[in-house]
């Protein structure tokens, strides 16, 4: 029963994350005004905003103007719910569950904004760093020897790549890696960085051989960092010992 509660909570939070994904890049408040159709501008009723269910009942279209609703909305809601439920299964209810739920929420917003707009908003970075410092401060013994070095080492490596590649990677990726590092610590941050390079390389290779992208075309790296961080959260404690051997 508690798993069902967390799943439903994840759906609701996912709905709010959709608001953040849509409004933050446009410089709009995530609180006011109330949700409305981006096409016709009519205010949505509560029955139009039930996570996933409203999308299905409305056939993926606005209740007023019948314009198609992006499939990103139910994907984010279901994805958030699934990740929260898996976090509960993996860590049970406790500090780690809340810590990683917040990290995943930040990563979801950042990744989808980066995919659509190729930017990583500073607002999310600042929120992530503050939250990471607060959660990491609970483990005060490891704050200075693990979490803060995690932020500095992970972002430092990407910063070096930015300098050497002369802009081949964005500054937002550097700042996002700092957020991941302050949450995970330096060992898991390095593992997440390594996994992100593998995921990014595979994806870039597929795009090249399918000729959907050229060698000089930009591909947002934030989603690979986010996905790698999630993999590390779930399986990092098993992989890290072998990785550092």
UniProtKB/TrEMBL annotation:
<dbReference type="Pfam" id="PF06750">
    <property type="entry name" value="A24_N_bact"/>
</dbReference>
<dbReference type="GO" id="GO:0008168">
    <property type="term" value="F:methyltransferase activity"/>
</dbReference>
<keyword id="KW-1133">Transmembrane helix</keyword>
<dbReference type="GO" id="GO:0004190">
    <property type="term" value="F:aspartic-type endopeptidase activity"/>
</dbReference>
<feature type="transmembrane region" description="Helical">
    <location>
        <begin position="150"/>
        <end position="169"/>
    </location>
</feature>
<comment type="function">
    <text>Plays an essential role in type IV pili and type II pseudopili formation by proteolytically removing the leader sequence from substrate proteins and subsequently monomethylating the alpha-amino group of the newly exposed N-terminal phenylalanine.</text>
</comment>
<feature type="transmembrane region" description="Helical">
    <location>
        <begin position="95"/>
        <end position="113"/>
    </location>
</feature>
<keyword id="KW-0808">Transferase</keyword>
<dbReference type="InterPro" id="IPR000045">
    <property type="entry name" value="Prepilin_IV_endopep_pep"/>
</dbReference>
<comment type="similarity">
    <text>Belongs to the peptidase A24 family.</text>
</comment>
<dbReference type="GO" id="GO:0006465">
    <property type="term" value="P:signal peptide processing"/>
</dbReference>
<keyword id="KW-0511">Multifunctional enzyme</keyword>
<dbReference type="Pfam" id="PF01478">
    <property type="entry name" value="Peptidase_A24"/>
</dbReference>
<protein>
    <recommendedName>
        <fullName>Prepilin leader peptidase/N-methyltransferase</fullName>
        <ecNumber>2.1.1.-</ecNumber>
        <ecNumber>3.4.23.43</ecNumber>
    </recommendedName>
</protein>
<keyword id="KW-0812">Transmembrane</keyword>
<feature type="domain" description="Prepilin peptidase A24 N-terminal">
    <location>
        <begin position="8"/>
        <end position="91"/>
    </location>
</feature>
<keyword id="KW-1003">Cell membrane</keyword>
<dbReference type="InterPro" id="IPR010627">
    <property type="entry name" value="Prepilin_pept_A24_N"/>
</dbReference>
<dbReference type="InterPro" id="IPR050882">
    <property type="entry name" value="Prepilin_peptidase/N-MTase"/>
</dbReference>
<keyword id="KW-0378">Hydrolase</keyword>
<dbReference type="GO" id="GO:0032259">
    <property type="term" value="P:methylation"/>
</dbReference>
<feature type="domain" description="Prepilin type IV endopeptidase peptidase">
    <location>
        <begin position="102"/>
        <end position="204"/>
    </location>
</feature>
<feature type="transmembrane region" description="Helical">
    <location>
        <begin position="221"/>
        <end position="244"/>
    </location>
</feature>
<keyword id="KW-0489">Methyltransferase</keyword>
<feature type="transmembrane region" description="Helical">
    <location>
        <begin position="6"/>
        <end position="24"/>
    </location>
</feature>
<keyword id="KW-0645">Protease</keyword>
<keyword id="KW-0997">Cell inner membrane</keyword>
<feature type="transmembrane region" description="Helical">
    <location>
        <begin position="125"/>
        <end position="144"/>
    </location>
</feature>
<dbReference type="InterPro" id="IPR014032">
    <property type="entry name" value="Peptidase_A24A_bac"/>
</dbReference>
<dbReference type="GO" id="GO:0005886">
    <property type="term" value="C:plasma membrane"/>
</dbReference>
<keyword id="KW-0472">Membrane</keyword>
<feature type="transmembrane region" description="Helical">
    <location>
        <begin position="190"/>
        <end position="209"/>
    </location>
</feature>
